[in-house]
């Protein structure tokens, strides 16, 4: 299986504060790597560097064999890079243009990437009724906006997607629907996912590989079943101990 995203020895400093220390991992075609850790661990900073929104202080990011540390030379380069890698952000309501109707937002991305999609087929792919085609973001729920953000990412036919806390704001039943949808899409399209989350139950449902991050450093990484079922680092054990497993029930104490 080919490596789609390769992150090597990444470092990010803000002034004298080093928030990412020597981080390396890969995301393979058709697979999901989860980047987990508590708030402030540096997950979004790494996602920002991978998607080109944040500059690295040191290290290298390669996407589809191309060194992303070098700035794109032309708008054509930028378009090609966007077609390889799309971001699904945590808060789609602020990410989507508040005045743009769903079909127009999707048509714009389709035109930009000259892809073969139509707004209707993308809406069908994410399970969004076509009656929302003329809706603007404020007329939709968080889950519906999240589907639009995913549909828009799919409009570029990306090789990989960075999903930054993409389901964290959704209630559990909508979250399960969106996760199922993402898994189905991955089976059909072999898109590679870098899944950024603090939620280990989401990791359990989605990840093939897991990278556990603490204060900007990788404390443990490996195949999901190994990291989740036989964690080696004390920090991973602590994270797991604070997350209920499926089927977990609180112990009732009797007086
Ligand atoms: N522009 C910035 N300037 C200074 N410090 C920053 C900046 N952006 C992020 N940081 C700091 O970098 C550290 C990592 O932040 P980051 O948002 O990457 O963590 P995270 O793991 O994604 O956390 P969360 O889940 O809360 O978003 C934090 O200490 C944060 O305060």
UniProtKB/TrEMBL annotation:
<dbReference type="InterPro" id="IPR027417">
    <property type="entry name" value="P-loop_NTPase"/>
</dbReference>
<dbReference type="InterPro" id="IPR017871">
    <property type="entry name" value="ABC_transporter-like_CS"/>
</dbReference>
<feature type="domain" description="ABC transporter">
    <location>
        <begin position="5"/>
        <end position="240"/>
    </location>
</feature>
<dbReference type="GO" id="GO:0016887">
    <property type="term" value="F:ATP hydrolysis activity"/>
</dbReference>
<keyword id="KW-0067">ATP-binding</keyword>
<protein>
    <submittedName>
        <fullName>ABC transporter</fullName>
    </submittedName>
</protein>
<dbReference type="GO" id="GO:0055085">
    <property type="term" value="P:transmembrane transport"/>
</dbReference>
<keyword id="KW-0547">Nucleotide-binding</keyword>
<comment type="similarity">
    <text>Belongs to the ABC transporter superfamily.</text>
</comment>
<dbReference type="InterPro" id="IPR003593">
    <property type="entry name" value="AAA+_ATPase"/>
</dbReference>
<dbReference type="Pfam" id="PF00005">
    <property type="entry name" value="ABC_tran"/>
</dbReference>
<dbReference type="InterPro" id="IPR003439">
    <property type="entry name" value="ABC_transporter-like_ATP-bd"/>
</dbReference>
<dbReference type="GO" id="GO:0005524">
    <property type="term" value="F:ATP binding"/>
</dbReference>
<keyword id="KW-0813">Transport</keyword>
<dbReference type="InterPro" id="IPR050319">
    <property type="entry name" value="ABC_transp_ATP-bind"/>
</dbReference>
